[in-house]
Design goal:
Blueprint lengths: L1 H7 L5 H13 L1 H22 L10 H5 L1 H14 L15
């Protein structure tokens, strides 16, 4: 349980994002148990496959379905009374 709590409190990491998503729906204690379970499963696969852990990142769930994230954000702003027009950001190249 302590490992799950520590993992949930890290910044910009996969397990912190997992905890945030689960805690919003299921509650803090159940989310901690679920994160602990994910840590155990991850540890098992790392040991059995003899690989190193690569964190998926704190924005993993947002990147997984960008369109759904965009749609939810636009709907939320429209419910607040804003008119939303999405324009792709220009990324500097140099």
């Amino acid at each position: 349980m302590e490992a799950a709590h520590g993992a949930a409190r890290t910044k910009h990491k996969y397990f912190q994002a997992l905890y945030g998503r689960l805690a919003a729906r299921r509650g803090k204690q159940r989310a901690l148990v679920a994160v602990g379970h994910s840590l155990l499963v991850t540890g098992y696969y790392l040991i059995t496959r003899q690989t190193q852990y690569e964190d998926l990142g704190g924005n993993y769930f947002d990147e997984r379905d960008r369109e759904a994230v965009k749609r939810r954000a636009v709907k939320r702003l429209e419910r607040l009374g804003y008119q939303v027009q999405l324009v792709p950001a220009v990324v500097p190249t140099g």
